[in-house]
Amino acid sequence: AYIPFMQMDGYVRRHVDFAKVYEGPDFGAAAERLTLVTEDGLSLAAWRVDAKKPRAAVIFTSGIHSPSVTAFFGHAAMLQKAGYSSVLVEMRAHGESEGDLICLGTKEYMDVRAAVRHVQSMDPELPIVAYGLSMGAGAAINAIGETPEIDALVTLSAFSTWPDVFADNMALMGIPRFVCDLEKPFVRLYMGVRYGFDSLRVNPLNEIRKLNGRPALLMHSRGDTQVPFASFEKLAEAAPGARTHVVDGDHHFICDDNFLNPEADEAYANAVLGFLNEHFPPSDG
Question: Tens digit of pLDDT for each residue in 184-203?
Fold first, then answer.
């Protein structure tokens, strides 16, 4: 019972300050700095990269401790050329955003929703895509489940539930599987104490079942040592209509070596742009 409290408190009760923050112009993407306010009152740092006559707006969220969401400026530049605007959101307790508690996606979906409100204030008719990495992918899934105004989903290395990924990582360390599974109720207990027991219903495995026909692209690597592949299998099973893109090896960022320049990974870029272009064709105007 003590293990989750011992292991997780230092992991989540903190504010993440990034050693490296990127600038949009370095990627050829002129970015406007924004301040978003969540429905529970936190101010978040964000950046907007606009396309002319955009097909959709893509909202990016990043990982639990790294990188800064500004590492997605290369994605924003790629998407801008393809006709998509982007909003990069530094989630609560990260970088220039307020907060001192990382909530494992149980609250961060509200950070995505703050960006949704911003996009709608600029163009109420513009389709919206939630696009996240790791914990940010969990927040993106939770956001689309809780927010009918989001039209599509793209995830990189999402976890199914935090108790799942906690137990799966214990198993990777060689701990017997039955011991790992016995730990899950105590992880849920920790989360209930830390975030409120009502928050436990908001998890990617529950929320992805609420797609209701909205398109999704789920990406994962078979040998991921941060979010083991078992999470992907559970999410894909819960969302049978979702498109998937799987790579071999341990590639938590999917296009690891080219994450800052995703166009250099042809398979990755084709998967992302092919998915978006299929569902958001250019307007006749």
Answer: 999 999 999 999 999 999 99
d(CA 18, CA 21): 7
Q: How far apart are CA 192 and CA 197, in angstroms?
A: 4
CA distance 72 to 76: 6
**How many angstroms separate the Cα of 39 from the Cα of each of 29, 42, 113, 203, 248?**
29, 8, 8, 19, 39
**φ/ψ of residue 188, rounded to 5:** -65, -40
Output the pTM of the full model.
0.96
Which residues, other chains included, contact 199 with Cβ-Cβ below 8 Å and sequence gap of 6+?
Answer: 103, 106, 107, 191, 192
Integer Cα distance of 136 and 64 in angstroms: 7
Secondary element (H or E) of residue 81: helix 73-81
Separation of alpha carbons 84 and 51, rounded Å: 6
pLDDT at site 282: 85
